[in-house]
Design brief:
The complex is a heterotrimer of chains A (about 260), B (about 375) and C (about 350). Chain A is built from 8 helices and 12 strands. With about 260 residues, chain A is of the alpha/beta class. In chain A, the strands form 3 sheets. In chain A, strands 6-7-8-3-9-10 form a 6-stranded mixed sheet, with helices on both faces. A 4-stranded antiparallel sheet of chain A has the order 2-1-4-5, with helices on one face. In chain A, strands 11-12 form a two-stranded antiparallel sheet. The relative contact order of chain A is 0.17. Chain B is of the alpha/beta class and about 375 residues long. Chain B is elongated. The mean pLDDT of chain B is about 90. The termini of chain B are far apart. In chain C, about 75% of the residues lie in helices and about 0% in strands. The model of chain C has no long low-confidence stretch (mean pLDDT about 85). The chains are: A alpha/beta (about 260), B alpha/beta (about 375), C mainly alpha (about 350). Chains B and C meet through strand 16, helix 10 and helix 11 of B and helix 3, helix 5 and helix 8 of C.
C-alpha cells in the first residue's frame, strides 16, 4: 500500500474546526485519483495532509505502511512530490532552474547536479514538451505553460506519488483536458500514483481510476462507475441549477 | 447718507486727537561720554553710557550672528525708551540670577556675588569649592539639563535674570522662560577668539550687579599678569612645535588656527602646527593628514579626555607613532577636577587666561618658570 | 568555463579597486611608495609606511569584510522573507546594537556614574556593548521564531524590536549631555578606519564563520525561492533553515555593527544590483557575486569618503546612502518592478 489514511480527521487548530472526520483512503498502486467535493468541503486540506504539509487532528497516515511522522523529511521528499496552485515566482528563475529544483532531495549538501539529475530534468521537460523554452523565465510563461512546468518539476523529483491541488483551476477547457491527459499518462506509463484535488468533476469521472468524494464531512472512495450508480452524486449539489445525469455520467445544467 | 459720513468722520478726528499715545517723544538722549565704558579685547559685546542708564549690546551672540541683542540697564524705573530699542529692561543691581555655563561661575565668585546665584543646570559640573558649598547647602538649585531648562523650577525660583548662551535658531526651553516674563540674557563669552576677550566678560556680570569698578579692576589685574607672562615667554630662545586634540574613530579633532587655544599657544612662544587654519572653533581632520603633518611635534597638549599614556594606546595604537607620545611630552587638563567630577579647565580657564598662559610657558620653556605650580595642565599619567 | 572567466574577472576587479583604495587618501603618497610598502614593508618615509600598512590596509580589509558581509546578510534576509525591501537590519540588529552603545555612552551618565568617565569610553567597551545589544535581539528573534511559524510575522516582530529599541535610544538622547550624545551620533555614522590589525582579525573570524554557515544555506534557500510549502516538500527542514539563517545574519551583521557601527544601504542595494545584472536568483551564483560586489562597492565608497586631496573626510554612511538611494531608485525605474 503506497499511501493510506486510517480514521483520519482533519481540520484547523486555531480556531479548532473539524472539517472531515473518519477518513479512510487507500492508494494502492499506480493510477489517477481525484478528490472532489463542494467548495469548502476540505479537498485542499485533505490533499495537504496526505502530502505531509499539514498535521492531522486525529488518525494516521501511512506511507508505504509506515506512519508518515516517523519518516525523515528528506525521505518523504523522495516518495511524495507536490504541485500547488499558481503563485508568484522569482523574476529571474528559468524553466530549467525551476524544474531542476525537483532534484534537491537527491543532490549533495551544496545542491550540485550530477549526470543522472540532469537526465531526469531533461526527461521531465521533454515529457511536458517544454524543452525548447527551458531558458525562458517562469514569470513570462502563459498559465498553461506554467502549469506544465510545475508538473515537470514534480516529475523530475521522480517520486512514486504525486499530489496536486487544483491543477486546472485557472486554465481554459483545452488546457484542462491537456493537463489531465498528462496526469493520466504519467500514472499509466510511469507507474505513479497521482492524487489531485479538483473542481472538474465531469472530467474526473471520465478519466480517473478512483475518486474520493467528500460530502457532509465524510469521505467515500470508489471507482467512478460505482459512485455514479450508487446515486450519491445526485445530492452533492443543490438540484435547482444542476443535476447529475446518470446515463450521460455528467453533471448538466437544468433547462429552465 | 452724506451727513452720517461726515459726522462719523468728525467723531473719528476728535477721537484720534484725544487718544494720543502716552510718552511718545523720547527725551533727548546724549551719551555721557563717548567710549565711557572701555572694552579692550572682547568683540562680542559693547556698552553705551547715557545719562541715567546704559545699553548693553551683544553683537555676536553666536559665531557670525546677524542679530544683536540689547539690554537696557538702569538703577531706577524712570527711563522710557521705545520698546523696539531694547530686548529687556533690567533694574540693576539684580538680586538673584540663574546662569547656565560653568564659565559664568568664576566671574560671579570674583565679584563676590555667588550668594546671588540661585540656580544652575546640572550642578555636578561646577568645580569651584565655594559654589559647591552653596550647592550642598541648597542655595543653588539644579534647574535642568544642558539646554533643557526646567521651566517649572525656574518659575519657582523667580530669578531677576537668566543668563544663557544663545544658539542659532530658537532654544525651546528659553522661549518658555521668556514667556513667563523672566528676562533671558545671552552671554557670548564662548564665541570670543582671544583669551583676554573671554576674561573681559566679567564686565558683563559687573554691569548686572553694579560692580563695574571692581570688574574693571579684576580684569586689569588679569590683563597685566597675562602680558607679563607673555613677555617672559618671549625671552626664550626656542619655539617648540605643538599639537592638540585626539582621534575619535578615524577623525582628529583639534582647535582651529583662530581659536583662543591657538592664541594661547602663540602667546606662550610656541608654534601651533595648525595656526594657519581659519577656524575659531575646532576642526576635524583625517588621521592620515594629522599624522603626516604633526608626527614630529615636540609637545602635545589637551589630548581630549585622556589621562594616561596607557589609556591612549589601548584606545588607538596609532598614538605611539607621535614623537610627543614617545618622548612623554603630553600634558592634559583632564586630570584636574572638582569634587563632583567637573573639569576645572572648562570652568576657570576662560576667566584666568593668565594662569593658562603660565602653565603653557612652564611646559614649553621650563627654564623660565621654575617655582611654579601649574593650575590646569599636568603631565599625563603612565 | 564561463563561470571560471567571470570569477577571474571579478577577482581582478576586486584587486584593482583594492589598490585604488589604498592609493587614495588625504595624504598624497606616490604609487611606487605604496607598492614598496606593501611588498617590502618599507618606503621613503616611515610615516608613509605606517599610513599604508597600519591605516589604509586595515581600513581596506575592514571595507571588504563590511561590504561582503552586509551584502550577504541582505541577500539572506531578502530570500528568507521573500521581500525586496529586507536588509541586514530587518531583524532589528542595528537597533539592538545602537541600544547597547546608547546605554553605554549615554545611559551610564544618567545613572550617576562619574561624568568624566562617561565622557570617554574605551573602544573595547563600545564593541562589547554593541555585540551584547545585537545578541539580545538575536536571542529574542530566535525565541520568537520558535513560537511563530509564519515568516511574515517574524519580519514584523523584527521591525517592532527596531522601533522599541529606537524609542529607548531617543529617550536616552533626550536626557543626555551634548558631549555624550555627540559621541553616540558619531558612532552611528559608522567608521571603517578605526581598527587595529588584531581587531580586524577578530572581525574576520566572525565574518568567516558567518560565510561558512551561508554555504550550507545555498541549497535550502534556492528551494525557499518557490515557497515554504514547496521547500518542505523538497525535504527542507524549515525550522532549521530559520535558525541557521538568523544565526548567520547575526554573526555577520552583529560583528560588523560592533566593530564599524551601522552602515546603511549596502545590504539592501547590493543583492538587487547583482540580481539585475546577472539575472539570476540562484544562490550558488548570487552568494559569491554579492560577496565580491559588496566588497568592491564598499571600497569605492570608502575612497570617496576619504575625499582624497582634502584634509577633511565625510562619514561613510553619508556616502553609502547618497550613492545607494539613487541607485536603487534607478534600478526600480529601469526594470519597472522591483521584483525579487
Amino acid at each position: 500500500m503506497r499511501l493510506e489514511a486510517q480514521n483520519l480527521s482533519i481540520g484547523y487548530d486555531k480556531p479548532r474546526l473539524e472539517v472531515v472526520q473518519s477518513v479512510n483512503i487507500k492508494i494502492k498502486n499506480a493510477g489517477l485519483t481525484a478528490v472532489i467535493g463542494i467548495n469548502g468541503s476540505g479537498k485542499t486540506t485533505l490533499v495537504k495532509n496526505l502530502a505531509g504539509l499539514l498535521n492531522a487532528q486525529g488518525g494516521n497516515i501511512l506511507l508505504y505502511d509506515e506512519p508518515l511522522d516517523s519518516y525523515n523529511i528528506k525521505d518523504i521528499a523522495k516518495k511524495i512530490s507536490l504541485v500547488l496552485t499558481k503563485q508568484s515566482l522569482p523574476q529571474h528563475l528559468s524553466v530549467i532552474d525551476f524544474v531542476a529544483l525537483g532534484r534537491q532531495p537527491y543532490t549533495n549538501w551544496l545542491g550540485l547536479y550530477e549526470y543522472q539529475d540532469k537526465n531526469h530534468i531533461i526527461k521531465a521537460l521533454k515529457q511536458v514538451e517544454l524543452y525548447e523554452i527551458k531558458d525562458k523565465a517562469c514569470s513570462t510563461l502563459s498559465d498553461g505553460q506554467l502549469q506544465k512546468v510545475l508538473i515537470a518539476r514534480a516529475i523530475a523529483q521522480n517520486t512514486p506519488i504525486i499530489i496536486l491541488d487544483e491543477p486546472t483551476s485557472h486554465l481554459d477547457m483545452y488546457h484542462k483536458a491537456m493537463v489531465l491527459n498528462l496526469l493520466k499518462d504519467i500514472s499509466i506509463n510511469h507507474d505513479k500514483s497521482v492524487v489531485f484535488a479538483t473542481h472538474e468533476i465531469n472530467l474526473a469521472l471520465q478519466l480517473c481510476d478512483s475518486v474520493i468524494l467528500i460530502k457532509n464531512k465524510q469521505v467515500i472512495q470508489d471507482t467512478p462507475q460505482n459512485l455514479i450508480h450508487s446515486g450519491v452524486l445526485h445530492e452533492l449539489f443543490p438540484q435547482d441549477l444542476i443535476k447529475f445525469d446518470e446515463e450521460a455520467q455528467l453533471f448538466k445544467l437544468n433547462r429552465i | 447718507m452724506l451727513r452720517t459720513l461726515s459726522i462719523l468722520g468728525f467723531v473719528i478726528l476728535i477721537w484720534s486727537c484725544v487718544n494720543q499715545p502716552k510718552s511718545e517723544t523720547p527725551k533727548p538722549i546724549k551719551q555721557s561720554k563717548p567710549n565711557a565704558f572701555k572694552i579692550d579685547y572682547a568683540k562680542g559685546f559693547k556698552v553705551q553710557v547715557f545719562e541715567g542708564f546704559k545699553l548693553l549690546t551683544i553683537t555676536e551672540a553666536w559665531p557670525n550672528a546677524d542679530k544683536t541683542f540689547t539690554y537696557l540697564l538702569q538703577t531706577s524705573d524712570s527711563i522710557n525708551l521705545p520698546k523696539t530699542d531694547y530686548d529687556y529692561k533690567i533694574k540693576t543691581p539684580i538680586k538673584s540670577i540663574v546662569v547656565t555655563s560653568t564659565t559664568h561661575i568664576p566671574a560671579l565668585e570674583a565679584l563676590g556675588v555667588l550668594d546671588n546665584l540661585v540656580g544652575f543646570p546640572n550642578t555636578d559640573y561646577i568645580s569651584s569649592d565655594k559654589a559647591r558649598n552653596l550647592i550642598n547647602q541648597g542655595q543653588i538649585k539644579n534647574v535642568g539639563q544642558d539646554q533643557n531648562l526646567n521651566t517649572e523650577l525656574l518659575l519657582l525660583l523667580q530669578p531677576d535674570v537668566v543668563v544663557s548662551f544663545a544658539v542659532k535658531g530658537q532654544n525651546k526651553s528659553v522661549e518658555s522662560i521668556k514667556k513667563a516674563n523672566i528676562p533671558v540674557l545671552y552671554n557670548a563669552d564662548w564665541v570670543e577668539a582671544h583669551p583676554l576677550g573671554k576674561a573681559e566678560w566679567i564686565k558683563f556680570f559687573g554691569l548686572l550687579f553694579d560692580k563695574n569698578d571692581k570688574a574693571q579692576q579684576i580684569f586689569n589685574t588679569i590683563k597685566t599678569e597675562y602680558e607679563k607672562a607673555k613677555t617672559l615667554g618671549s625671552k626664550s630662545q626656542t619655539k617648540p612645535t605643538v599639537i592638540s586634540g585626539a582621534l575619535w574613530k578615524d577623525q582628529w579633532y583639534l582647535p582651529g588656527g583662530d581659536s583662543w587655544q591657538a592664541q594661547l599657544i602663540a602667546d606662550a612662544n610656541a608654534e601651533y602646527l595648525y595656526a594657519d587654519t581659519e577656524s575659531r572653533g575646532s576642526l576635524s581632520l583625517s588621521f592620515e593628514s594629522v599624522l603626516n603633518d604633526s608626527q614630529n611635534a615636540e609637545y602635545w597638549i589637551a589630548p581630549a579626555q585622556y589621562t594616561s599614556y596607557q589609556q591612549m594606546v589601548d584606545q588607538q595604537k596609532h598614538y605611539e607613532k607621535f614623537k610627543a607620545f614617545k618622548d612623554k611630552n603630553i600634558y592634559t587638563f583632564a586630570k584636574t577636577k572638582g569634587q563632583t567630577g567637573g573639569v576645572l579647565y572648562y570652568e576657570l580657564a576662560p576667566q584666568r587666561p593668565d594662569w593658562v598662559l603660565k602653565d603653557l610657558i612652564q611646559i614649553f620653556h621650563p627654564q623660565l618658570l621654575t617655582n611654579y605650580e601649574p593650575k590646569f595642565f599636568k603631565p599625563l599619567d603612565q | 568555463m564561463k563561470t571560471l572567466k567571470l570569477s577571474l574577472a571579478s577577482i581582478l576587479i576586486l584587486l584593482f579597486v583594492l589598490m585604488l583604495n589604498i592609493s587614495l587618501g588625504s595624504v598624497s603618497i606616490p604609487l611606487k611608495d605604496i607598492v614598496q610598502a606593501i611588498f617590502t614593508g618599507e618606503s621613503s618615509t616611515s610615516t608613509w609606511t605606517y599610513i599604508v600598512l597600519d591605516y589604509r590596509l586595515t581600513k581596506a580589509m575592514t571595507a571588504i569584510i563590511v561590504g561582503s558581509g552586509l551584502g550577504v546578510s541582505g541577500l539572506l534576509m531578502q530570500t528568507f522573507f521573500r521581500n525586496p525591501l529586507a536588509g541586514p537590519y530587518v531583524l532589528g540588529l542595528s537597533s539592538g546594537a545602537g541600544l547597547g552603545v546608547a546605554l553605554l555612552l549615554m545611559g551610564s551618565g544618567l545613572l550617576g556614574l562619574s561624568i568624566s568617565n562617561s565622557l570617554w569610553f574605551s573602544k573595547t567597551a563600545v564593541i562589547l556593548a554593541s555585540s551584547l545589544g545585537s545578541l539580545m535581539v538575536m536571542i529574542a528573534v530566535l525565541l520568537t521564531s520558535v513560537k511563530i511559524k509564519d515568516s511574515m510575522a517574524l519580519l514584523i516582530i523584527g521591525l517592532m524590536f527596531a522601533s522599541l529599541t529606537g524609542a529607548v535610544v531617543n529617550l536616552l538622547s533626550y536626557f543626555s549631555a551634548s558631549d555624550e550624545l555627540q559621541q553616540f551620533v558619531f558612532w552611528s555614522l559608522g567608521s571603517l578606519g578605526d581598527l587595529s590589525w588584531s581587531e580586524v582579525s577578530i572581525l574576520g573570524v566572525f565574518w568567516f564563520l558567518g560565510l561558512t554557515l551561508c554555504l550550507f544555506l545555498i541549497k535550502p534557500l534556492d528551494a525557499l525561492l518557490i515557497g515554504e510549502s514547496y521547500a518542505k516538500s523538497l525535504g527542507v527542514n524549515i525550522k532549521v533553515l530559520q535558525y541557521t539563517t538568523i544565526i548567520a545574519t547575526c554573526l555577520l551583521t552583529g560583528s560588523i555593527t560592533a566593530f564599524a557601527g551601522p552602515i546603511a544601504f549596502i545590504g539592501l542595494a547590493i543583492p538587487h544590483l547583482m540580481r539585475l545584472i546577472l539575472k539570476t536568483n540562484k544562490h550558488i551564483i548570487m552568494l559569491p557575486a554579492v560577496c565580491l560586489s559588496g566588497a568592491v562597492v564598499m571600497l569605492i565608497c570608502d575612497s570617496i569618503s576619504q575625499l582624497p586631496g582634502f584634509d577633511y573626510t565625510i562619514p561613510i554612511n553619508a556616502v553609502t546612502s547618497l550613492l545607494g538611494a539613487p541607485i536603487v531608485i534607478w534600478l526600480i525605474l529601469r526594470s519597472r518592478q522591483l521584483n525579487f
